[in-house]
Amino acid sequence: MINLAALFKRQLAREALLHRRQVRLIINSCLFFLMIMVFFPLTMPPDPALLRTIAPGLIWIAMLLAMLMSAERLFQQDYDDGVIEQWLVSGYPVSLIVSAKILMHWLLNLLPILLFSPLLAILFGLTVYETLILMLSLVCGSPAILFLCALAAAFSTGIKQKGVLMALILLPLTIPVMIFGSAALAAAMQGFAVQAYLALLLAMSLVAAGFLPFAIAGVIRISLVD
Amino acid sequence: MMNQFLQWVAMGGYSIYIWPAYGLVCVVLVMNLLGIKWQRQRTRKKLHQWFKKQ
Amino acid sequence: MWKLLYQLASPKSFYQTSRRWVPWLGGGAFFLLVVGILWGLVFAPPDYQQGDAFRIIYVHVPTAFLSMALYAWMGFLALLLLIWRIKMAGVILTMCAQVGASMAFLALVTGSIWGKPMWGAWWVWDARLTSELILLFLYGAILATGNAYQNKEQGDKVVAILTLVGLVDLPIIHYSVYWWNTLHQGATFSVFAKPKIHASMLYPLLLTLLGLSLYCLLVVVLKARNELLLRERRQRWVRVLMEGEGV
């Protein structure tokens, strides 16, 4: 039995390697994100003021949907390969393994979205300050969203008809993060102070990252043990 | 007499709101109970077949 | 009282004990609902401000209250299932979800119908209405998840986890929606500013509230009895019972 820190690091390395071998998955969710961001202005009157008004909500919705899409596959491959079964019998805490998996998934999926932020700034007419606040709010709030997506994915692994179930579960649970995330950028655009929003987002993410892995491990244990 | 009753049904002009609301509530409550009755019939059939197979 | 709880925890004795309750619950619910609704529709005086339209309160408030009370009860049952491993709690939890969803749906629709003559709109993004809508979505998620599992005991446990996550999230959701609403709309008027309600209007409300609670209890007990017959079909008492009923 290796100690827990070494286990965590090993899992992180494993997830990084898996993602590197299947880069197309990350590209997929990036393209989806871009698609939403580009199609919205195209399908509406190209009024700059209108675009600035909807930008906060739109960016967060696009991020939620992109994370939802990428999370669908979060546990599926490991379940099909029997890796999850190995986790359950290994004697190590499944919550720790799950945390490592989601953490690496978050890092690798968020990075492209952050890199797109300057592009979004140009498309929607955001200033440098607003772009920075956007990136900060995404960093603070997206862990909460991703952990909730992982919870929904755990519920729907091993079930045939997944897509609807995941969205249905996520819909109510992600509402607070979405409200405060989009409000952070909206406040920055109007010149209000944003520290409160960022602090709240960070708090939600920390709570999600701290407690949801146990719920996820519980769901995995219950639903994938026949 | 009839006049009073019709006045009550009219509910001061709000009848198109009140009666559909109450009607929907009654329908849902009754459907819940009916659904249980149908489910019990289905359960009995399922159990009957299962017992026969044993 | 502990004896009653022990009796309820085992499927067989739950089935037997609940048999005596069903006629009382049914009769009580019917009587209270009929008396309450008749009193509210016929005998309660019309409201000073809202005229006769306020009478929707007699179905709206009980359904809204029950949708939230049932969810809290489901949270308690979820704890019983996950921590104390009482399987009966899981059965009742799953049965409560459907009644709760009906109540939330009725609360939303009756509230919307009440809102049209009062505020002139079928829907406003008020904090409480939005929270009730989200509660309906939560119920929907719970029902969909429960139905997706073939193994019912697994389904119960997964639904319990989802219920608990939702229960913890519910205050956060409510306050964030409230905050969002006050920021974006500016308080137009307080939708639920309850002026002190006169006794002649209050009593029918209490009656319908109690009647609807008994109704929900009745539905949950009936559904649980049905579900137990299916789940416990390998037990001898089910076979004896069914043979007695000619199945």
Which short descriptors sum up this protein?
heterotrimer, A: 226 residues, mainly alpha, 85% helix, C: 247 residues, Four Helix Bundle (Hemerythrin (Met), subunit A)
Describe this structure in words.
The complex is a heterotrimer of chains A (226), B (54) and C (247). Chain A is mostly helical. Chain A has one domain. Chain A has helices at 4-21, 23-42, 48-71, 76-81, 83-90, 94-124, 128-156, 162-173, 175-190, 195-223. With 54 residues, chain B is mainly α. The interface between B and C is medium-sized, with 26 and 36 residues.
* Unreliable stretches of chain C: 185-191
Briefly note the structural class of the backbone of chain C. Answer: mainly alpha
The shape of chain B, in one word, is rod-shaped
Structural class of chain B: mainly alpha
Mean pLDDT of chain C: 85
Sequence of secondary-structure elements of chain C:
HHHHHHHH
> Any low-confidence stretches of chain B, pLDDT <50, length ≥5?
none
User: Mind telling me the CATH class of chain C?
Assistant: Mainly Alpha
Share of β-strand residues of chain C:
under 5%
Q: Which protein chains are joined by the largest interface, and how many residues does each one contribute?
A: B-C, 26 and 36 residues
CATH-scheme architecture of chain C? Up-down Bundle
Q: Averaging pLDDT over every residue of chain B, what do you get?
A: 88
C-alpha termini separation of chain B: 66 Å
Q: What about the largest sheet of chain B?
A: none
Question: Layout of SSEs?
Answer:
The complex is a heterotrimer of chains A (226), B (54) and C (247).
Chain A: H1 4-21, H2 23-42, H3 48-71, H4 76-81, H5 83-90, H6 94-124, H7 128-156, H8 162-173, H9 175-190, H10 195-223
Helix pairs in contact in A: 1-6, 2-3, 2-6, 3-7, 3-9, 6-7, 6-10, 7-8, 7-9, 7-10, 9-10
Chain B: H1 2-10, H2 15-53
Chain C: H1 2-9, H2 11-43, H3 57-84, H4 87-119, H5 127-147, H6 152-185, H7 199-231, H8 236-244
Helix pairs in contact in C: 2-7, 3-4, 3-6, 3-7, 4-5, 4-6, 4-7, 5-6
